[in-house]
Amino acid sequence: MTDLIFAERDLVHSLKEYIKAEESKLDAVKSWANRLDVLTLASTTDPEGFLAHPVNAYKLMKRLNTEWSELESLVLQDSSDDFIANISVHKQFFPDEEDQKGAAKALMRLQDTYHLDSESFSKGRLPGVRYNAFLTVDDCFDMGKTAYNENDYYHAVLWMQQALRQIDAGEDTETSKSDILDYLSYSVYQMGDVPRAIELTRRLLSIDPSHQRAGGNLHYFEQILSNELRDMDQTKKEHSEETSIQLVTYERPKDYLPERDIYEALCRGEGVKMTQQRRSKLFCRYQNGNRNPRLLLKPMKEEDEWDSPHIVRYLEMLSDEEIEKIKELAKPRLARATVRDPKTGVLTTAHYRVSKSAWLEEYEDPVIAHVNQRIEDVTGLTVDTAELLQVANYGVGGQYEPHYDFSRRPFDSNLKVDGNRLATFLNYKDETEAFKSLGTGNRVATFLNYGHGKSGAYPREHRAQGGVHPGQGANPLQGTQSHTHSHTNQPTTAVFGLQHGEHAGLWWESNPQPWRCEADVLTTKPPCA
Length: 529
Known about the structure:
This protein is of the alpha+beta class and 529 residues long. The protein folds into three domains: 2-91; 97-232, Alpha Horseshoe (Serine Threonine Protein Phosphatase 5, Tetratricopeptide repeat), CATH 1.25.40.10; 260-520, q2cbj1_9rhob like domain (Jelly Rolls, Sandwich), CATH 2.60.120. It is built from 17 helices and 17 strands. The chain has helices at 2-45, 47-51, 54-76, 81-91, 97-113, 118-123, 137-149, 153-168, 177-190, 194-207, 212-232, 260-267, 276-279, 293-296, 320-330, 366-379, 414-418; strands spanning 284-287, 300-306, 311-315, 335-336, 339-340, 347-348, 353-354, 356-360, 389-394, 398-403, 421-428, 450-453, 456-459, 475-478, 493-498, 501-509, 521-524. It has a ten-stranded antiparallel beta sheet, with helices on one face. A three-stranded antiparallel beta sheet has the order 7-10-15. It is flat, with a radius of gyration of 33 Å. It starts with a helix and ends in a 5-residue tail after the last strand.
């Protein structure tokens, strides 16, 4: 998305050049008008006396024959050509309606995940952000419409109420209060609050008595309420004469994903807290890969992050230069990440995986080969049976909901040749500034132990229990030990809703993949440097 920032900068520069050209043309026309205004004032006072002078007669002929034609040409000059051409060049890279909708849904995802109210978003009060950014009434209204069109009435209510709140506070806007109430009243009805839907619709009709849909809706809502009250043997309450509109918070609807609450709690850094006794068994160490020659003089810094399942983190796995080179190589190839359709086996995009990815091979740059070699040295696993290095870019609100890192699909023909995924190695950039104060941001919650089955290695059952906090170039590795377990149906991997983030990952296939050795380590007590 950074390219769009610079594209917009170029367009602003082009627009200023267009304005400058238009102002220059307008100045020339004004000069003509002022000069001729003085001249015609004198000539019309005494036309015959004016034309009696032969020079005036000549200049009149010249002006009408030549100079007015030149002025006409000046006025007809279209200085917008360059500006229009520049827009046309950039427009092919502009986001479309689907992109805008995706960005709006991403804000709502962040809103839910981090328990941020609409007003905080609107006023730009986000934890850890460096730049102020505000949402206008029009912005809030558009957010609400996006949710409404997706039948997401919970968020439609939140954002229409925020738009209403800002209008009532006196903010100037092109959006009418009646339009907001129109969407809000029906969304409230869809949330099951018929009495309030009636109240809001009445307020709408008090503003715009000719609103045809509101009249029909009011009759419909009142009929529903009347039937409900009759069933409960109650009488209908009188219409309130209050002029202010009360804003109501509704309970968020139940999600289709059973793990949603745990998943989002992890995003906020609210995972299961480890007891002091368990924490005392976590260590930091220098890992030399069983006296690997490449690690003897410069062993890797390894930290225990979790005890069961065993999760470790490697610090300073990648240098800043390597990270930038990997980003440079991946950027031109980034494309929307896909998932395999469980019914057809065809790769397709999905709402639960919002990111872009690219795959890099060793021959493309020595950096890729060096990184792969370093991963081999640290893990003791050969990359000969690993997949290509994948770079994943998570934009605004990017996420990957809880999922398996291995294949459970019988139609995956690659399993017969390559075997199933054995381990995942994730390299992370530094955390984002936004939400950092919440102990959140660029995170991974992948908790896997691995064992040998008849056709490969399978993850052990584990629900997400805590957040791994990778820093610049840091890497959490899942499954550093071998265990024997059958595979279960619990999702094991998730990437949270992020403000933005990037990581590079490597997956190993299990067939064939020898466990080379146990690693020799030098152990120290926490805290780690």
